[in-house]
Design brief:
Number of strands: 9
Shape: globular
Number of helices: 6
Structural class: alpha/beta
Strand order of the largest sheet: 4-3-2-5-6-9-7
Largest sheet: 7 strands, mixed
Low-confidence stretches: 1-6
Order of helices and strands: EHEHEHEEHEHHEEE
Helix content: 25-40%
């Protein structure tokens, strides 16, 4: 069940999740973290496409539903914890998630400032926020955008339609890609 205070907008179908994951560089050998996994729409799609999924869900009721929905997958680890308190893996990993919009900045700070940054990050974000993370002449770049740009190459992969979500968000959304750079700028 959606909790309004958590600014949740769930993807409407597993087929849509697979479509979006198809616009990433996630491979069969990857470990991928799903932040705010909800009932498991993205998690189940990731489980079909990669070696291991770490599904992080802080809400107990939702985590129980997630366990029930994903019991057929043996490559999914469910962590009932706030992502901001979660210890990131020591091995190489990627992130693909549709986190609550109000946590986007904190999540990106945590990933960028960690000792073991992800190889790639794919987040569904508010378009206005995502544009501030791009380092270009067309849009204002935020302090966080400049910070991320040192380690990651950002780009908007896809604009997303409101009907992709339940409930539809009141703001435009996009799939943002951040690929880690091999060398710092």
């Amino acid at each position: 069940m959606r909790k309004h205070e958590l600014s949740q907008h769930f993807l409407s179908s597993p087929k849509l999740a697979l479509f979006l994951i198809g616009h990433s560089n996630i491979k069969k050998r990857d470990t991928v973290i799903d932040i705010g996994a909800g009932s498991g729409v993205i998690t189940s799609a990731l489980a079909k496409r990669c070696k291991k999924v770490i599904a992080i869900e802080p809400d107990h009721e939702t985590a129980e539903k997630l366990r029930k929905n994903l019991k057929k997958f043996d490559n999914v680890e469910i962590v009932e914890q706030d992502f901001l308190d979660f210890e990131l893996p020591k091995e190489e990993y990627k992130v693909f998630a549709n986190p609550p919009f109000h946590l986007s900045s904190k999540i990106l700070h945590k990933l960028d400032e960690s000792e073991n940054q992800p190889k790639a990050i794919y987040l569904i974000l508010q378009k206005q926020f995502a544009l501030k993370l791009l380092n270009n002449e067309r849009h204002y770049t935020s302090k966080l955008g400049y910070q991320l740009y040192e380690h990651f190459a950002p780009r908007i992969r896809l604009p997303l339609k409101p009907n992709y979500f339940t409930p539809p968000p009141a703001v435009p959304t996009v799939l943002l890609e951040l690929k880690r750079r091999d060398t710092l700028l």
